[in-house]
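Final report, results section. Input specification for complex C-07:
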Amino acid sequence: MARVITITSGKGGVGKTTTTANLGTALAMHGQRVVVVDADIGLRNLDVVMGLENRIVYDLVDVVEGRCRLRQALIKDKRFPELFLLPAAQTRDKDAVSPDDMIALCNDLRREFDFVIVDSPAGIEGGFRNAIAGADEVLIVTTPEVSAVRDADRIVGLVEAFEKGHPRLILNRIRPHMVSRGDMMTTEDVVEILAIDLIGVVPDDEAIVTTTNRGEVAVMDRASKAGRAFSSIARRLLGEDVPMQVFTNDEGFFARLWESMGLRPKRAQR
Amino acid sequence: MSIWDTLLGRKPQNSSSVAKERLLTVLVHDRVKLTPDMMEAMREEIIAVISKYVDIADPDAIDVSLLHGESSDHLKADIPVRRSRS
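Structure output:
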């Protein structure tokens, strides 16, 4: 049974596109047949994040408006056997597509793929509604910051109002050293506030910037903590029981110094 | 924080706990979806009902607010009542 999963957030810039690219790639690395769909019409980004921007010929709006067949718009990511991208249009806006169009599109994609991952635009209006229209499941991405969590809360309410089931949470860009100093909310804080199930925690990681610079995806980098966190989320989506990572503080210079002098520094717990 | 706060063991609240409290409070308002107009209308109606039974000291001193609680959120109305001896 194919699964259509929409990645949304409310707040912009919290990591929806990064999450879509990484989860899609991770699932493909696990042998799944995956299409990632950029539903951010007018502000497309999934193509550039995945390094496929030079291969776009047709896009989602061309398919919906009948200018091409679905197959012609799908871009195969040559790095993986079964990973495809359906890009958004750059020169149109979100009114070009309706929720019914998206439902029909997702149904067509279901026939060809195991997973359809839809990258939602920010906001709560038409673009968001289009992005969730065809979804079986919704994943909400937030960062542990006041405005992101507030917006995520609204999205939880809207997802449930649109009868898309219970959304699950991806907490992105957590900084363990700030958490242990009390300067960043903990995973438990955010889960308590939003009261939805957590599917994964992803640490802030420079590898996200550098891999995106190159048009690569962090899950391809074994050394990237964020990449490994996204891989774990993909495995949980596949039903594997992967324990939630606890991100301990990276030991700084002084921690190591005290340790070497036989003094015990205070250990971070998260 | 004064020396007394330090001696008595009062730690300054770290920013993440402030963030959490603020979020919990603002979300009570967001979720209840009471607009300021609705809050005002509700306040007037509360005053009208209570006035039927008790003498309200000063309608402007009435405070209606939304608070976050452990297991549920609370709508609190604080209504000063006139002291009378008769």
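Chain A has twelve helices and eight strands. The CA atoms of residues 8 and 120 of chain A lie 5 Å apart. This concludes the modelling results for the funded period.
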